[in-house]
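Record pair follows.
FIRST:
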Amino acid sequence: MSKVRHVLGISGGKDSAALAIYLYNNYPELDLEYYFCDTDKELEETYSLISKLESYLGKEVVKLRGVENSHEDSFDHFYKLYGGFLPSTSARWCTKKLKLEPFERYVGDDPVVSYVGIRGDENREGYISKKSNIQSIFPFRKNIWSKDVINKVLNNNSIQQFESCYRNFGEKEKMDRAIEIIRDPINNLFSQQQKLTLLLDLGVKEFNMAVYEILNGSEYPLANSKYFPLINNEEVLGRDDIFRILEESGVGVPEYYEKVEFEVNGKKGEYARSRSGCFFCFFQQKIEWVWLYEKHPEKFKKAMEYEKDGYSWMGDETLDELIRPERIEEIKEEAILQLQKKSRNNSPYLLDKIGGAEGEGCNACFI
């Protein structure tokens, strides 16, 4: 039986940081490894958060890079390798080369359980490795299992096996209803999601135990574990919980989330950054680019230096065009209007209002 490694990727954002704290406090029996895929193009606030986490967790966050022993930053190495072609939403070589490949080299062929900080109030899956030795778990969600596991256990061909596993757990009243649901095959009138929801609503622990029993006879990494504590987890954590965990721990919310006031044409507004990742991330909204220009001008200047030969971070506008005084005014006024439209949201965090999320960037499709 191979020893299973339990790993958690720190993106520099709120969700992965909160997950590290949550698991440390609630599941100390997990011998977690923490890692950070460093693009060498991060904001100082990101490194500050990682340092605070290391102090709280009492463990090093291992820094992974796309290229080791190079005289260049990892991003610059691949930027030149790709002929000066900037990454974009349709050509995300940065995610592959600076996030995915360093992570998969780090874990090698060991059986690995990777913990992912997707919240219970989000409707997305995140990065799922194609390597069979890596299994993703989502502790903040009601359904902690990845899509591939759900496909396996709820497949119509697995009905008899899943029913057999389910019979080992739970109260009779719940069990009878669960068996009815399990025996009902998935079809055009009864989707997999409907089946999953019904079973989870009936009992999260019972569902997890049955899934875990099936996995014990599989090639999934958890088949190498005699016990997995998260099968008893029934908590569902959302955005408010994430901020609470960070604040109560003393680690705090990443500094770039903190709203900053600005004034334009007699109107007052607020801006902040809404995601972790490279300071020139192409997922940024234009008001975030303005934030970078005014709060980190040296980083903005470096981002501008990459725009040449028809390539730009935003596609429809260059950074040189964006920082014209009249254009900055337009962007700020538009941001104020957007905030006014969403004024019913009373969250103290600006990213709740501007519509950004850590999960929209490269880190969340990854970890």
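SECOND:
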Amino acid sequence: MNVIKIDKQAWRDGVDNLFSTYRVMAPFKQADGSYEFQMLERGQSPDFECANTRLSPKSVTFPQTELMMEFSTDENDSDCNLMKPILPDDSPLAVIGIRPCDARAMTLVKMNFDTDDYQDPYWLKRYESAVFVGLACDEPRSTCFCTTAGGGPYNEDGLDVLLSDAGDAFLAKVLTDKGKDFLAAGGWNDVVDDGGAFEAGKAVAEKKIVSAVSTDQLAAKDTLVLYGAPFWDEIAFACINCGTCTFVCPTCWCFDIQDETYGRQGVRMRNWDTCMSPLFTLHTSGHNPRGEKVQRVRQRFMHKLKYFVDKYQKGIMCTGCGRCVRQCPVNIDIRLVCEMMNNYVA
């Protein structure tokens, strides 16, 4: 694939060109000092000063709240009692500055929303309309463990373009035709023979990863043996079921669907949900199969590190971004849990 060199002044000018073709989303510094992905306006540029955003960019394809259908119960309305779909905006979207761990997460989540039996039109319309422009991670955090979670700071899975910061310029590795069209829209076309810079940058960045998980024994573990392991009470002891880990995670895909009405008009909406909530599995009968905190904590980690491994045979349902480690208010660490599960012997 081609490598294109983009002078940083040309980069700033080219970003403005993109607005003629794309809606543009990128990291942007918030008032509280954190960084989040947001839609940019002409004249704004992506802010690459952050190591990573506080929330993952999974909302690109899976909004926290999403209107799915609308309806009317007004008998004078010709569409009375009919559910009409509200389809998402599928005009071209450029997601610029997504880290490789978050782009790879999209490929894992796709396994849930795009199956042989069912294709989720809401998720897929957003996914297929987006071009993912990655930013290589040259300064990984101490909580990053992507290299042992199936990825890496220069991983290309799920990306259309991979950017590397070369000081006074960006090097852009073209990975797909969508990526080629993106660079053409920005007016960036200075092809260089500098693919070796990516391999050199990758080697340096990977050496900076100081955190790791062991996953080699997870697939061979008996599910019921892990389920009945004695360490779950210890792990769950501090948990307050806040759900922070699931909301910041790029691979958590659980949702709830609700109908809301105002007068005779109503909508059906999909909202993020969390297996950490006692309401998540509460039946209308009043029975709750995971009514205890320890059961919910066990479910989260068993899903990430065992059920997903067995079902898809694509490694763990985690990309090593470290968000849950950094943001858990009681310091529950998925890396330690993974080690416990991987090394457990009944």
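COMMENT: The CA atoms of residues 278 and 291 lie 6 Å apart.
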